[in-house]
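=== RUN LOG ===
request id: a7f3
mode: sequence -> structure
chains: 1
length: 171
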Amino acid sequence: MASTSFQRRFSAGQLITQQETLQANGFIGEFLQPRDTSVRRPAVLVLGGSEGGLPGILLPGLLASHGYAALGVAYFGLPGLPSTLAGIPLEYFAKALRWLAAQPGVNPAKIAVLGVSRGSEAAQLLGVHYPGLVHAVIASVPSDAAICSYPGCRGAAWTLNGRPVPFTKSS
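=== RESULT ===
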């Protein structure tokens, strides 16, 4: 029987980490980037899925330790945000993208959105509706359409300009 193993490592001491709040910037997030901000680097907005809250530090930390600025953003399931994945304005993410583009050490012409599961829906929608802010989309475990709210499938998960984004009830 053969086996192998691998390790994922990132050096937190080599990274700048800061928490972003609704009050300060209009979104909840965790920003990580290499300490050297004299070089403008590509950046990634990281979105989790239907679990809500922040997407965790592992993925943004790995990206940052490999030279990318990374901003993990929560869009529901934390105080001040909707409690469920329902009626989430795409403009919320656009605010985070504009903030990310303005950070020292970030190349605003090289920003990707990486979404996991339901977050991949938001990532794809952002790529379509905000092509000036999003230069690449990475959809991990995506669906091929926007799906209804979660839990409960009672309406649109996403809105744009105050209107529901068309959705399907099945994935």
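=== NOTES ===
The mean pLDDT is 93.
The longest helix spans residues 90-101.
=== END ===
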